[in-house]
Design a protein that fits this description.
The structure holds three protein chains of three kinds. By secondary structure, chain B is mainly alpha-helical. In chain B, about 75% of the residues lie in helices and about 0% in strands. By secondary structure, chain C is an alpha+beta fold. Chain C has two domains: about 5-235, P-loop containing nucleotide triphosphate hydrolases (Rossmann fold, 3-Layer(aba) Sandwich), CATH 3.40.50.300; about 240-350, Nucleic acid-binding proteins (OB fold (Dihydrolipoamide Acetyltransferase, E2P)), CATH 2.40.50.140. Helix content of chain C is about 25%, strand content about 30%. The chains are: A mainly alpha, B mainly alpha, C alpha+beta.
Chain lengths: ~300, ~280, ~350
């Protein structure tokens, strides 16, 4: 930029103006991403909220203002209450199980041993596979008549010939929770491995010089230093598991007798099986509020961590 | 036994229950996909098929339109990868290198988009694409996937960009390279690995997505591979598991190989910036 | 080659001002070193000359042309970075040829320039290697080569030797000096190492807290530091300081006290009786002799470097460092005699830090 050669005081003002101008033009770099997500994510949020307070027919036509009526309908639906309760069980069981398994697995995978990269690849493998296909394969594996689980158990001499795993809600839900854990482990292990590799080796060497046993350095160094990663893993997993749709949808479709329905399958059924778009939207808003709570928690935790890191 | 051999045995022993559970479905897939239909519904099921039978794969492509589903998936995944990269690259560059007003707000915004699940919004998404006349349009999924996977791409790219010293670009400027030239000749070649990993990750995510594809592509010929496979189940007693397992094998093995090849980068990428 | 003129240059980040009105003229072919403690603003000043930092206020002229708003690409300056900033995906030859090829020079001309630079820097055998397979010293040379091939208006060096080990640093220091003598290039060199500054510079700019403390030749700075800060910064081991009140004797000659004993001060000082002054004496300028029992100072520590002996002493509760080339037979706890010669004293106002003699 060509500037008039005048006194420094005069010259300095247009300069800083130019700098602010350049910072504003830098907005061009983030603008496309903002526009894309505002359209695809922002607008549907608005739509869901609008439908939640409207009377909507099964073809999506808004017939009038409904106020909180849809929410009232949701709360009066015993299946919604049942689904909420099952969502709680589902989320707590899957996240808890995932974290409990992922910590020792990550610690083992962080050790230096023969074939470690093969082991890592196998552990992370479920991440690469569509949840829909994982669910489908497991549905076949636990199939009572010709599933391979019963085949393997029978071959081990256990009395599981033709055991119908998905026939009762309790057993089906347990199986689904186990599959949920299995598919959540890779991401969680990845976070923990990232955390473990961030612990400097010299820390362990210093601890060894101070006389710490392997067990002591695990409990006194590794686990405390994993804490922030543990928090993040729990919150992110809660959000993902709370929203997890394909496993339950494909394995049991929420059945038998709504015994494995969670909120997300409840919403989907209301909208696309029963055509109650307004009720589905109201339930979505309720779920959205729960998620918002988790998000705020997540932001709070990352802020805190950022502050502690500086 | 050396110390390392002993440790290796212990580690594998400790991991073995999980490894078995992870690999069990693959054994199932493989064993079932290579069997004839009547062999599955036999009274006595076995692991090994009587003879290797590849008819399921032929059936899949010849009569079940699975080739079309794979093409649909490919189109969407390629498109979503390109679009999300196109918007995430400049955003990640700006976050890593430039002074942008509202940087912190943008980071928070990205987080929020990542925390909202597409399924909570499924009713709204359906309406959005209905307005746009894009129900039963593969491009709808291209944009939907790229919007939802963009945030992750920005994080991964930014964490990679942050590892490239700013000095290098400044040296290029001093050497007389314009901003665009230094980006193209110095910055871009150095971050190609990061871009490649991010692309593959986005591709795999898009390839595997189920709920949005299920909802927005309502016509059989437009279904993506995961949706198509789920539809093949039909009614409970007539489910042709041999065909389905052949299909899952075809749809998962290539992706699993790709994923395995970038797995170590994912750990690094996530630990550097993804979860920060 | 060119001259650089800096007028009242300031730099602020938001409300924090890091450079307060810098004035400096760098002549054609001159080698100027900016030196100071970390955080003094020397690197910021260099980066402002380079165009990598915005100029908040003031003017920068190169060859008489105002450069404030000219982008770094168009300033035609070469910079050697502390990290070397070698392009990791290019070979040594490509690294050096990069700027020339950007300018669209002919391939044969580029090859000749790169070949010449490689010969000067002893890099001929490494032209096809990637930077990661080079040693620290070789990388440093490539960074220099990248600057040389361009024949820029001026060279800018940002602590280029601080990543090398001590021996290599001394060696590269000499090479840079020789290079400057043969190329005669205007150079601005940033370092925190005062030995590097003393050995390399035609003129040294000592900076502290965003201000220029003094500009001068190495010997000017050593012999007549203008402020207490410069006195303490230049010279190793660092100058000794003690504080005292100026008194005048019957003949009107100034003196002060260390503990009970009077010490004569240089004549012709600009200070009044009763003023508080800081007196500086270089460790090399305090003659020391072994004393029987009644010496005025006590030895706390003896450091041998082979050539010299450094003694850390206490005199009237004040720490002194003395350097001598004599092989003294003293140990910690021994008494010694120190002499103070007013001709070697540097006297500063204790409040303003300005030189008084």
């Amino acid at each position: 930029m060509e500037m008039t050669q005048t006194t420094p005081a005069q010259a300095s003002r247009p300069q800083s103006g130019a700098r602010i101008g350049r910072n504003l033009t830098n907005l061009v770099f983030i603008l496309p991403s903002v526009l894309l997500s505002l359209t695809i994510i922002g607008y549907p949020i608005f739509e869901v909220m609008r439908m939640a307070v409207s009377d909507v027919n099964r073809f999506g036509k808004i017939r009038g203002f409904e106020g909180l009526g849809n929410f009232l309908k949701v709360f009066q639906d015993p299946i919604f209450i049942q689904s909420s309760y099952q969502t709680l069980i589902w989320t707590v069981a899957v996240v808890g199980g995932t974290v409990l398994i992922a910590i020792p697995v990550a610690i083992i995978l962080n050790e230096d041993f023969h074939g470690r990269s093969i082991a890592r690849t196998i552990v992370l493998l479920p991440w690469a596979v569509s949840l829909a296909m994982t669910a489908l394969v497991w549905r076949f594996v636990v199939n009572g008549d010709f599933g391979t689980l019963n085949l393997a158990l029978t071959q081990l001499g256990l009395p599981f010939n033709n055991h119908p795993w998905l026939a009762t809600a309790a057993s089906a839900f347990t199986i689904e929770i186990l599959v949920g854990i299995l598919v959540s482990i890779p991401f969680t292990v990845t976070i923990f491995l990232g955390g473990l590799t961030s612990i400097p080796v010299t820390l362990y060497e210093a601890a060894a010089m101070d006389g710490a046993t392997r067990w002591q350095s695990l409990t006194r160094i590794t686990l405390p230093m994993l804490r922030p990663f543990l928090q993040i893993a729990i919150v992110l997993n809660v959000i993902y598991v709370f929203n997890s749709f394909p496993i339950i949808w494909i394995m049991t479709n929420g059945g038998p007798a709504n015994g494995t329905d969670i909120l997300i399958t409840y919403v989907y059924k209301q909208a696309f099986a029963f055509g109650k778009l307004d009720v589905a939207a109201a339930a979505s808003v309720l779920m959205f509020l729960v998620l918002l709570g988790f998000s705020v928690l997540y932001l709070f935790m990352t802020r805190q961590r950022g502050a502690a890191g500086q | 036994m050396t110390r390392k051999a002993k440790r290796s045995a212990l580690c594998w022993l400790g991991l073995s229950p999980l490894l078995i559970v992870v690999l069990f479905p693959y054994a199932t897939m493989l064993s079932t996909a290579l069997k004839r239909k009547d062999e599955i519904f036999q009274f006595e099921t076995t692991w090994l098929p009587d003879s290797l039978y590849f008819g399921n794969f032929i059936e899949l492509f010849a009569n079940r339109g699975f080739g079309r589903a794979l093409l649909n998936s490919l189109y969407i995944s390629f498109g979503a990868t390109l679009v999300s990269l196109a918007v995430a690259l400049p955003a990640a560059y700006a976050l890593s290198r430039l002074r942008v007003p509202g940087k912190g707000t943008f980071r928070t915004y990205l987080l929020v988009t990542q925390l909202i699940s597409p399924i909570v919004l499924i009713v709204g998404l359906f309406r959005l694409f209905a307005y746009l006349g894009m129900i039963n349009d593969l491009n709808a999924l291209v944009f939907a996937h790229s919007a939802f996977y963009m945030a992750f791409a920005v994080w991964m790219l930014q964490s990679y960009f942050d590892t490239i010293p700013k000095d290098l670009e400044e040296a290029a400027w001093m050497d007389g390279a314009s901003r665009l030239k230094s980006f193209r000749r110095v910055f871009l070649p150095l971050c190609l690995p990061g871009i490649a990993v991010t692309s593959l990750f986005t591709f795999v995510n898009s390839w595997n997505e189920y709920a949005m594809s299920l909802t927005i592509l309502r016509e059989g010929s437009l279904q993506t591979a995961p949706v198509k496979i789920a539809f093949l189940t039909g009614t409970l007693y007539e489910t042709e598991w041999n065909i389905i397992m052949a299909a899952t094998l075809v749809a998962t093995v290539p992706v699993a190989i790709v994923f395995a090849s970038i797995q170590s980068y994912l750990i690094r990428g996530l630990s550097l910036g993804g979860v920060k | 080659m060119s001259s650089i003129a800096i007028r009242n240059l300031t730099k602020s980040y938001g409300s924090v001002q890091v450079l307060h009105g810098i004035d400096l003229d760098i002549a054609d072919e001159e080698f100027v070193v900016l030196v100071g403690p970390s955080g003094c603003g020397k690197s910021t000043l260099l980066r402002m000359i380079a165009g990598l930092e915005d100029i908040t206020a003031g003017d920068l002229h190169i060859d008489g042309t105002r450069m404030n708003d000219v982008s770094p690409q168009k300033r035609d300056l070469a910079m050697v970075f502390q990290s070397y900033a070698l392009y990791p995906h290019m070979t040594v030859a490509e690294n050096m040829a990069f700027s020339l090829s950007l300018r669209g020079k002919q391939k044969s001309a580029i090859e000749r320039e790169v070949g010449d630079a490689a010969r000067i820097l002893h890099l001929e055998d490494y032209l096809d290697r990637l930077p990661k397979s080079l040693s620290g010293g070789q990388r440093q040379r490539v960074a220099m080569g990248r600057a040389i091939v361009r024949h820029p208006k001026a060279f800018l060096f940002d602590e280029p030797l601080s990543n090398l080990d001590a021996k290599l640093r001394t060696h590269m220091r000499a090479e840079i000096k020789q290079l400057h003598q043969s190329l005669g290039a205007t150079s601005v060199y940033v370092t925190h190492d005062q030995i590097e500054a003393m050995t390399l510079a035609d003129r040294i700019v000592v900076m502290n807290a965003g201000r220029v403390e003094q500009v001068g030749t190495p010997l000017e700075l050593f012999d007549r530091p203008r402020t207490r800060f410069v006195a303490g910064f230049i010279g190793a081991p660092a100058m000794n300081f003690f504080e005292g009140k100026v008194e005048l004797n019957e003949q009107g000659k100034p003196h002060t006290h260390i503990g009970p004993s009077p010490v004569a001060l240089p004549e012709g000082m600009e200070s009044q009786a009763g003023a508080i002054v800081t007196v500086g004496l270089r460790p090399q300028h305090i003659p020391v002799s072994a004393a029987s029992t009644d010496g005025n100072a006590r030895v706390e520590l003896v450091e041998q470097t082979g050539c010299e002996t450094n003694l850390l002493l206490k005199l009237a509760g004040i720490d002194f460092t003395v350097q001598t080339r004599d092989r003294l037979e003293v140990n910690a706890g021994d008494a010694v005699n120190l002499e103070f010669d007013s001709r070697n004293m540097h006297v500063f106002d204790s409040n303003s830090g300005q030189r008084l003699n």
